[in-house]
Amino acid sequence: MLSNPPAESSQAALTPTPAMRASSQSGPLDAMEMEAIAINLQAAARIHKGYQFFSWTQGLLQSLINHEMLICIAASGEHALARVESFSTSTLDQEFVRQLCHQDILLIQNLIQKWRMNHHEPAIHHVANDAPFTSSALARELKRIGSTTILCLGAFGTDSNLAAFYIFACNEEELTPRRAYIAELLLPFLHAAWVRTRVEPAQEGGASLSQDRSQLTQREQEVLKWIYLGKSNIEIGLILGISPLTVKNHVQEILRRLNVLNRAQAVGKALSLHLISTT
Questions:
Q1: Which of the listed residues 37, 51, 74, 187 has the most CB atoms within 10 Å of its CB?
Q2: What is the pLDDT of residues 148-162, one digit of tens each?
């Protein structure tokens, strides 16, 4: 069960946080960082669909927070893991990650508790060394995809209860206190974007799923699967025994049918609609 966070005075809210102090020690944000943040905020504000969230977190956001996987956990009442979604370009299936999180629920609750004890500041944990991870199936899978360090952040709802918990699984060299500070700045926009992807009407989503399944031909589904696995048009052509030009035509048709702009968005939408089998 998630306990309510302690009440904080307005004076405490104005006190510089450890992450802010770490940032000031390494200097203020430079012009390139500020521009990258502004571009990411604009992109986040335009997100309304799951595939758009996937495309942003696994694309543009990587320039600021380079990560192998983002795990988003919704909290509701007594259920710490009311909803779990993961976003990654690795071959780890989202359903498999969800099962691992439920299996390691004590680990997740431990991370939330440590984040609370850290005064709700971004918390960095080393998967290989920190005690809670020694017997964790989730930690083993994260290490397998090259993530040795995780960054944990929480977002509160209007009732002052924890609304969501976010875990960035990163490479240790990429995760610095400065990156954690930038993640803290982006958190409200990340949280708002993810929430918007979860309020789509169920009936509309179901109709879209059925429609998208019926629109893609068997060959297009095969091409989409190999795009998901990171293959180029030339490689897909060799695998399927067709020309790269034919593959290109299939890709363009997939983008048109799924109403997306690029391959990353196509993969993100296909994953959110379960059009791709990841097993």
A1: 51
A2: 899 999 998 766 788
CA angle 274, 276, 277 (to 5 degrees): 100
CA gap 241, 244 in Å, rounded: 9
For 157, the token pair is 């709802």
Q: Which amino acid is at 43?
A: A
Q: Where are the domains of the chain?
A: 11-197, 202-272
Output the six-digit token pair for 109. Answer: 């609750």
Q: Quick check: 31 and 179 in contact, CB under 8 A?
A: no
Q: What is the pTM of this model?
A: 0.69
3-state secondary structure of 157: coil
Residue type, 213: R
Where on the phi/psi map is residue 200: left (φ > 0), alpha (ψ -120 to 50), or beta?
A: beta
Sheet strand arrangement including 123-126: 79-87, 69-76, 162-170, 149-156, 123-126
CATH number belonging to domain 11-197: 3.30.450.80
Rounded distance between C-alpha atoms, residue 190 and residue 167, angstroms? 12
